[in-house]
Amino acid sequence: DGLDRWSQLVGCFDVGVQQIALGALTGLLEGQGPLRAFRKREAWYQSLTQALPPLLHASDLTHSPLSDPEVFRDTLRVACILCTHPSCFQPEQGDNWLYERLLEQSAQVLDMDASSALEWACLASAASADATVAKAMLQSDTVK
User: Fold this and answer.
1) Are 110 and 117 in contact (CB under 8 A)?
2) CA angle, 16 then 20 then 22, to 5°
3) What's the pLDDT tens digit per position in 82-126?
């Protein structure tokens, strides 16, 4: 299915391919019908949470895929969509670290794309519902 294939391409380490794949994913998940279908499928949630980590593994943000404005914006959009899934922040998922790292890294590059501030705020709001993520946000100098 398309969502799984595009998710796999996000996991590659080529920023151009990541940019195209993230754009396709945000397009696939646009609108109420696709969002309803997404929320009913655990496998789609898993595909997306497994796709995002390669975007967050750079130790230096100047070499991070998030330093590309389109990758940054679409990553935040996908993360906001992920937060609407019933599986999000369930203890068995173990995905808290993903949102902690995404919020911290994206806060560092938020100035380059002010239009993404709304997505970042929505993600931070949704993520703060999880006590572990909320605590990490409060302790992070970057997020503060």
Assistant:
1) yes
2) 115
3) 988 998 877 776 777 888 888 888 887 777 777 788 888 888 888
Name the pTM for this structure. 0.84
First CA to last CA across the chain, in angstroms? 39
Rounded CA separation 37/80 (Å): 16
Phi-psi category of 31—alpha, beta or left, where left has phi over 0 and alpha has psi -120 to 50? Answer: left
CA triple 19-68-41, angle to 5 deg: 40
- The token pair that represents 136 in the structure block: 């990490």
In sequence order, the 6+-apart residues with CB closer than 8 A to the CB of 139 are none
d(CA 53, CA 59): 13
